[in-house]
Amino acid sequence: MKPIHMNSNKEDIAPLVLLPGDPLRAKYIAENYLEDIKLINDVRNMLGYTGYYKGNKITVMGSGMGIPSVAIYAHELYHFYDVKKIIRIGTAGAFAPETKVKDIILGTKACSHSNFGYAYRKTNDPIVDSSEDLNNKIIETAQELNIPIKTGVIYTAEVFDVYKNIDHLKQTIPDNIKPLASEMEAFGLYNVALDDNKEATCIVSISDSLFEENVDLTSEERQTSLNEMIILALESIIKN
Ligand code: HPA
Q1: Domain extents for the chain?
Q2: How far is the CA of 95 from the centre of ligand 1 (A)?
Q3: Euclidean distance between CA atoms 200 and 95, whole angstroms
């Protein structure tokens, strides 16, 4: 069977992948951080590039938004292209008052009300782990680079919770689980990785918060936060 949503040659995909949600962000990362880049996917305009970062072959590709989209690309990358490690880099909303806009958060676990875990791998577990090894490398790298990060649970929403109040769902999250951020992909990515014994994790920067007023980020602030995340992800994923 051939992949349906990617038209890449097997040798053109690196074992190490960065997966931003936005395909144009993948293009930005490739053009600004990688050398010798080659476009490796354009099916549905889900742009992917492979290039070299400090001599290491890296693929960077968009995942689209939401669990089903990220899961399709993660599945194809792991199953058809022998990808070993995926780091999702994205934006998220604050899910707790202590989470502030511009914070960078490493999702050591993802929690969701989604049925995806059951659909994909017959587990009803609402909480899934990311790769401990990748997480340790990210924590270590963040210390080395002096990039402050917070680590904890990420909530993966199925509706964009800026547009729709999800307090009825929040109330059913056990008290001992306190998600720091909400986004829409990590739970899908972690389940796909766990099912195939591969490595995945997710770093997000907080772009919006219902707990803080007047926190619209300038485009410069957004860019700085994004650049820090990109460097953190690249430096961590190439660590042996
Ligand atoms: N919720 C879900 N996904 C998001 C958010 C949010 O507040 N911000 C960026 N992606």
Answers
A1: 10-237
A2: 9
A3: 22
- The Å distance, Cα 91 to ligand 1 centre, comes to 7
Please name the residues in contact with 25: beta carbons below 8 A apart, sequence gap of 6 or more: 62, 226
Which ligand 1 atom lies nearest to the CA of residue 157?
2
Burial letters for 185-216: b for 16+ Cβ neighbours within 10 Å, e otherwise? bbbbbbbbbbbeebbbbbbbbbbbbeeeeeee
The number of the ligand 1 atom at minimal distance from the alpha carbon of 95 is 7
The CATH number of 10-237, from 3.40.50.1000, 3.30.420.200, 3.40.50.1580, 2.70.70.10, is: 3.40.50.1580
pLDDT tens digits for the chain (240 residues)? 899 999 999 999 999 999 999 999 999 999 999 999 999 999 999 999 999 999 999 999 999 999 999 999 999 999 999 999 999 999 999 999 999 999 999 999 999 999 999 999 999 999 999 999 999 999 999 999 999 999 999 999 999 999 999 999 999 999 999 999 999 999 999 999 999 999 999 999 999 999 998 777 888 888 888 999 999 999 999 998
Question: Does pTM top 0.90 for this prediction?
Answer: yes
